[in-house]
Amino acid sequence: MADRGPAALALDSALEPDVVVMDISMPGMDGIETTRRLVGHRAGACVVMLTAHVDRGRVLDALDAGAVGFLAKDAEPAALLAGIHAAANGDAPVDPRAARAMIDARAGRVGPALTDREAEVLALVAQGEANKAIARRLSISEKTVKAHLTRVFAALGVTDRTQAALWAVDNGFSESADRDAVLGPRSTTR
Questions:
Q1: Cα–Cα distance for residue pair 24/3, rounded to 1 Å
Q2: Residues 50-69 pLDDT 10s
């Protein structure tokens, strides 16, 4: 087991494993660059990328680097093991959220469809605002903020506000950002 890119490359050279499970977010040389170098050094290397949150750009970058699959760290252990076995058998295991990101990318959609209000709530979450402060600022109830966040989490494929905030930051999303450029067409219902 290696916790950094150079160590992973050295371990791969020494062991030549059937499947490499690569963390996308390693310190220093990240998993994408490590995968690119590993596949460049050992043609046919089978790399399955592992990530805490699914981001369209990172999914495509990982696949472009040579990863054969993309699994989420929060997947059940049995699902992770099944993904590793699938990769060893020549299949391409892809977490459903990563599959959605790839489909959206190919269809020309940059991000999920959010209402204007959901986009406002997401932007305020990205700025570190608490639900109570968001409710006051937008003149809505805290219960309504929570309902918006539930829909935002589902649209982004995340499970909590930290992951949503990370997605927002990773995708250049802020309250003052041009949301149409970032998110593409969205619903106008409130």
A1: 11
A2: 988 777 777 888 888 999 99
Q: What is the DSSP code (8-state) at residue 172? A: T
Integer Cα distance of 23 and 13 in angstroms: 18
The dihedral region occupied by 108, where left means phi > 0, alpha psi between -120 and 50, and beta the remainder, is: left
Q: Model-level pTM?
A: 0.57
- Whether the CB-CB separation of 54 and 72 falls below 8 Å is answered with yes
For residue 161 the two structure tokens come to 């506000």
Say whether 135 sits in a helix, a strand or coil: helix
In the sheet that 69-72 helps form, which strands lie side by side, from edge to edge? Answer: 20-23, 47-51, 69-72
Q: Please, which residues bridge with residue 22 across strands?
A: 49
Three-point CA angle 109, 113, 115, nearest 5°: 145
The widest CA-to-CA distance across the chain, in whole angstroms, is: 60
